[in-house]
Amino acid sequence: MSEKNVLAILGSPHTNGTTAAMLNLAVHKAEQMGYAVTKINLYENKLSFCTGCRICMDTHICVQKDDIQEIALLLHKSQLVILAAPVYWANVPAPVKNLFDRLLGAAMEETNTFPKPRLRGKQYMILISCNTPAPFSWILGQSGGAIRSMDEFFKTAGMKPAGKVVCTNAKNKKELSKQITKKIERCLK
Known about the structure:
The protein is an alpha/beta fold. It has helices at about 20-30, 55-60, 70-75, 95-100, 105, 135-140, 140-155, 180-185; strands spanning about 5-10, 35-40, 80-85, 110, 115, 125-130, 160-165. Strand 1 (about 5-10), helix 1 and strand 2 form a beta-alpha-beta unit. The radius of gyration is 16 Å and the shape is globular.
């Protein structure tokens, strides 16, 4: 039996915040299920900004030499990717967007019509924390913008959703609610 791999990505600068707690719970559950989990923190990785050279479309990997090569390798060998990010200005934080930009050639092939995915057969899970209280988070489009950005990357890459969990009113939460905990656990069944 081949090893089941999970790539867990923290897209928050706060390692003790709600976003990190959501990711830690998902990682714990995945490990209980027998997955080998590799966890990375985008704020601790060296990732230069995308220069828009588009060489990666032919090489399948960014030509800039930094931590993107390891992340792309982990992405390709994982069956499940869990991305946890807070909402910044109704979207993902800059390091998450930069990750998507830098993985362009690793995730898709350009064609004359719709891009051809390079990550078929894999799944993704989105965990979002948002300081805006519910239902205003949805009414004002705060969480929706971040989810759309994440969905667009993963779906264009050919991946299937395993689940999406949004924790609204996350500011100063000391622990995850039972409802959020159950939603995260359900995504990993």
